[in-house]
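Record type: monomer structure entry
Structure origin: computed from sequence
Chain ID: A
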Amino acid sequence: MTSRLQKKLDSIQRLFLLYITGVYRTALTAAHQLVTGLQPFHLHIQQEATYARVPRARSSSNFFTVLFSPTDCEIKSSGIHIQPPPYFLLHNQILFAENHIDSGAKAINTDGSKTDEGTDSAYCILENYGIIASWQGKLDRSNSVFQAEIFAIRMAIEAASSLHRPIKIWTESLSSLMAILNPKSHHTMVR
C-alpha cells in the first residue's frame, strides 16, 4: 500500500474518529485511535486482505506476527452433498408448466409470504378438491420470501415422503425451483 493511500485512509478515518470521540481537532489521530481502541484504517484493510487471500490461495500468510493458515478458515460449500438415487433425475421431476390439468388427485400446494408481522411458510395437502391436511410455519422477520418458499417446499417434500406414493407438489416460486435445480447452489436451505 502506498504512503499516499495510507494518508488518504487516515484522513477519512480521522473525520469519523473526531465525531465518535468529540475531542478537539488539534488532538493527534493516533490519540483518537488509542481512545476508541480502533487500529489504523490502512492496517485494518491489509489484515482483511490477508483474511481473504488465505482461503483463496489455500496457502499460509502472515500479518505482522500473526500466521493465518488455510486450515483455520471455513471452506465454502459447493452444491449438493447428497447424491440422489440414480432413478431420481431432478430435471424430470420438476415441471415448469404454467397451465396444468387438475385431476383431483392428491397434491401439495406450497406458499411463502412476508408481511409487517413477519415471514410465513405453509403448505396444504389437497385430494378430491378438498384440503385434507395443512401446515403453517412462522419464520423470523429477517427471513426473505425466497427462504419461506424454500422452507415450504422442503416441508412439503418431507410430508410427501411420509405418504409413500407419488404426489405432485405445486409452487408459484420459480426462483426456488431454479435454486433447487442448480447443483452449485450456495443456499443452505436448498442443500
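Annotation 1: The longest helix spans residues 3-21.
Annotation 2: Strands lie at 61-63, 66-68, 107-115, 118-127, 130-139, 168-170.
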